[in-house]
From TrEMBL:
Organism taxonomic ancestry: Bacteria, Pseudomonadati, Myxococcota, Myxococcia, Myxococcales
UniProt domain ATP-grasp: residue ranges: 112-298
Source organism of the structure: Corallococcus coralloides (strain ATCC 25202 / DSM 2259 / NBRC 100086 / M2) (Myxococcus coralloides)
Record's keyword annotation contains ATP-binding: yes
Pathway noted in the entry: Purine metabolism; IMP biosynthesis via de novo pathway; 5-amino-1-(5-phospho-D-ribosyl)imidazole-4-carboxylate from 5-amino-1-(5-phospho-D-ribosyl)imidazole (N5-CAIR route): step 1/2
GO biological process, alphabetically ordered: 'de novo' IMP biosynthetic process
Identification of the protein by name: N5-carboxyaminoimidazole ribonucleotide synthase
Length: 380
């Protein structure tokens, strides 16, 4: 049984009040929902756009139950929510996605093991729980590796790159002397991601793959639809569909993938929430990822994922605000087809995502050229 629909007029709860929660809340309000959120930050971006915002830790089960009692359904915008909190919510309202999904996703070792067991394509990897195991893993994987904390880490944090096993001690200390996943460095031709929405009744909607470019392990820009060979697009979409169905996700799941120089496609990792690489859906698609998230968790019919016009985004980091004069908003917005999306964050810090620019074009490449021109005009 998929359960009843939560119709417009109902109340949606969101665990997390960052920019993803803010944009999801705005989409929910457009659809006619009341929205409540919970976040540890009393000045979180969602606070100004929701009906009620609780300031509490993601491990605070009492606060989570308080939220859930006043909501018809609860979702999340961040993976760093304790399983006990998710289970506490589920005692009072549907929690979508639920603890069973997060139990797999929150720990990179468990996530890799689940994917491997399901036969999904992965690059060479090992798990290490001590400095000695880390050294052995680096040697076994050929020396040049990326080491990632098994839990936590976001936008490049919680990662360390090594070239030989002699760097194991430094990496182990740098990452907090705790469980890590070690991944062999790969010959990448491209990075892409696929967004899948799945309702409680099992209905699926798969967005075309996005083409992504990272700098300093943070997404710099993204194109939708990704200009990739049709065979790659077809395989990527099927892999993402199968992972989403296998995890029984209720809500959104983004599958990040690597395309190698030899043409093979590998899964990098998954995220059960809206994703930076699909912000362009707000201007490219009939249904944005944020509206789709609301539809999915409320058990409404899923919206069309058709791309009406190609689009691209460029992320805006706090570095721009720290420059003399700050962002030149008027110059950027003077360019045709360009939109500015700011997240309502008060404190600009180096590397912190403050917003993004989007642009549409006749082709993905045209959209990218426009949004890059806007970024330059802004002062990047």
């Amino acid at each position: 049984m998929s359960g009843p629909m939560v119709l417009p007029g109902g109340t949606l709860g969101i665990l997390g009040g960052g920019q993803l929660g803010r944009m999801m809340a705005l989409a929910a309000r457009t659809l006619g929902y009341q929205v409540q959120a919970l976040d540890p930050d009393s000045a979180c971006p969602s606070r100004s756009v929701v009906d009620r915002c609780l300031t509490a830790s993601f491990t605070d089960t009492a606060a989570a139950e308080d939220l859930a009692r006043q909501c018809d359904v609860v979702t999340l915008e961040i993976e760093k929510v304790s399983l006990s909190t998710l289970n506490a919510v589920a005692r009072h309202a549907p929690m979508r996605p639920g603890a069973s999904v997060l139990e797999v996703v929150q720990h990179r070792g468990r996530q890799k093991a689940w994917l491997a067991k399901g036969g999904f394509p992965l690059g060479p990897w090992r798990e290490a729980n001590s400095e000695a195991e880390l050294s052995q893993a680096i040697t076994a994987l050929g020396g040049k590796c990326f080491i990632k904390s098994s839990e936590g880490g976001y936008d490049g944090r919680g990662q360390y790159e090594v070239k030989t096993a002699s760097e194991a001690g430094v990496a182990w200390k740098e990452l907090g002397e705790r469980s890590v996943v070690v991944e062999a460095a790969l010959d990448l031709k491209a990075e892409l991601s696929v967004l899948v929405a799945r309702g409680p009744d099992g209905q699926l909607a798969v967005y075309p793959p996005a083409f992504n470019h990272h700098e300093e392990r943070i997404l710099a820009w993204s194109l939708l639809p990704g200009p990739l060979p049709q065979a790659v697009l077809t395989q990527a979409s099927q892999v993402a569909r199968d992972i989403t169905a296998g995890l029984k996700v209720e809500g959104l799941l983004v599958v990040e993938m690597f395309l190698l120089g030899d043409g093979s496609l590998l899964v990098n990792e998954v995220a059960p929430r809206p994703h930076n690489s699909f912000h362009s859906t707000e201007v490219a698609c009939l249904t944005s990822q944020f509206e789709q998230a609301v539809r999915a968790v409320c058990n409404l019919p899923l919206g069309s994922v058709e791309v009406v016009r190609p689009a691209a985004i460029v992320n805006l980091l706090g570095d721009l605000w720290l420059q003399e004069g700050g962002p030149r908003f008027a110059q950027a917005l003077a360019l045709p087809g360009v939109r500015l999306h700011l997240y309502g964050k008060r404190d600009a810090r180096k590397g912190r995502k403050m917003g993004h620019l989007s642009a549409v074009g006749s082709t993905p490449e045209d959209a990218l050229q426009r949004v890059k021109a806007a970024a330059t005009a802004l002062g990047m």
